[in-house]
Design goal:
- There is one protein chain.
- By secondary structure, this protein is an alpha/beta fold.
- It has helices at residues 2-10, 21-25, 42-52, 63-77, 95-101; strands at residues 16-20, 35-39, 56-58, 85-87.
- Strands 1-2 form a two-stranded parallel sheet. A two-stranded parallel ribbon has the order 3-4.
- The longest helix has 15 residues, at 63-77.
């Protein structure tokens, strides 16, 4: 996430890092570019992501990213939001997941 946010920031995009307090205080976060918003919980992070995003692109990453993706997809199914969601399937990273979901 850090590389993507830095690249976006360098090329003039608005960058907002939404970080749960426990993660920020646990030193799991690198240098922040753009604006940083700390929230109490992961649930609050998802709400703020929905409030501040036009769309979602899921990049190859960790289990936390998958958890956030599934929550965003589920909330779309519940009509909580109507924003586009995409998987950036670099080198087939998500192939097995997509196959499982089919």
């Amino acid at each position: 996430m850090g590389c993507m946010s830095i690249a976006a920031h360098v090329w003039g995009s608005q960058v907002l890092g939404i970080i749960p307090t426990a993660i920020a205080e646990g030193n799991f976060v690198g240098k922040t570019v753009g604006e940083e918003l700390r929230v109490p919980t992961m649930q609050d992070k998802i709400w703020k992501m929905i409030d501040n995003s036009d769309a979602f692109i899921v990049l190859p990453s960790s289990i936390g990213t998958l958890e956030e993706n599934f929550q965003i997809v589920f909330w779309a199914q519940l009509n909580i939001h109507h924003k586009p969601i995409g998987l950036l399937n670099v080198d087939g990273f998500f192939n097995k997941l997509v196959s499982f979901l089919d």
